[in-house]
Design a protein that fits this description.
about 160 residues; mainly beta; Immunoglobulin-like; 2 domains; 1 helix; about 10% helix
Length: about 160
Amino acid sequence: MPITRTPIIDDDGTGRSGTVIDNAWKQELYNQIDALSGASGLWTARAFNAANYSVEAPLTWTPTSAQVYFDRYTYVGNTLLWALKLADITLGGSAAGYVKAIVPGTRMPRHQADYAVAAGYSNGAYAIQKLTAFTAGHIWIRRVDLSPIQPGVFFVDFFVTLEVV
């Protein structure tokens, strides 16, 4: 959020008492603070859009906003910090490999990479989920042992850092 900008007041009214230089310096300082605030951890809650979440066929799932407990992100330089919790999901169809989520924001992962960072529940048991980030702008959420995700109750909760471009 930008800070409130206040000009330096010309006390003698001449416009020649250093005000132009002092005010330019002050506005430059404000600009530098504003530039930092965009990269200093202000979190954005992503508005729900069912197209941001899907599953690999033949699994089926129709995402609802009630199933997205939070989907928040921020940038720090070229790093995306992303927290996502999907819960109370009932998957239908037949077993398949992954649940998919679109990476939030406007920047894409720099590299394809795997992260074993998500707590989850599938196949009737709690399990660490493996996240695979793709440069095309999405992640796969899979079981670490790569066994198929079965129809039934599923949830995942993660916080991940991704290098982005």
